[in-house]
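Good morning C.,

I know you're traveling, so I'll keep this short. The sequence:
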Amino acid sequence: MFPLVAYGTPLVPVEPSSAFAARQQSDIALLQGNTLDEHAEFTVAAFPEPITADRYSAILRTAFGDAADLVEQRYPVNAFTSPTAAASRVFSDRDWICGSWRSGRDHAERAPTYAYTFTDPTAPTPGGNPVPALLQPATVHGSETYFLFDFPDGPALTTAQGSLAEQLVGYWTRFIRTGNPNGDSAPTWPRLDASDLALSLEPDAIEPFNMRTTHHCDLWDR
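The tokens, ready to paste straight into the viewer:
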């Protein structure tokens, strides 16, 4: 997805998602993805007091109008640890993950495309603050950063997280060298195509999953 991108310049002449939909982007291999709960901290910033079940329904009505009931059927509040967590997942899927899915599917018609969702709920947060209790478990925006880069003052990873970090660095560097993240006996990363397969990245659980159905992208694609 491409939120709030400045365009109409020599560097970015066309709004990116429109360019992807029109197949006007460069035909180069693409690797892209998100954390599972991209919108978690933004949800807490917008609603610092715990959201009630009634307030959750009202938020959906404000955001989605006549489609609110359908959204609530797909994201029932009792399927989450709290109404705040439910709202977080709604907007993580709608505003982040399914935007990535759509742009990835569009790009897959031009060049090899690989998508991921980083799903480790124990990953360090970029700000160093714990995930608020009413949102746990959650994998927040930017939490894969410490798995891809070495920070001298960064938090220590567990043994399992360190192993995942090695896998991620391997995927990323192979992709940079060859345009394909696969190799070195790592779990196979499928290309995103009509099968809608992406890779879920979590310690001891690297596996393909259906991005469209898992994140209700058929709903959001409407």
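Safe travels,
E.
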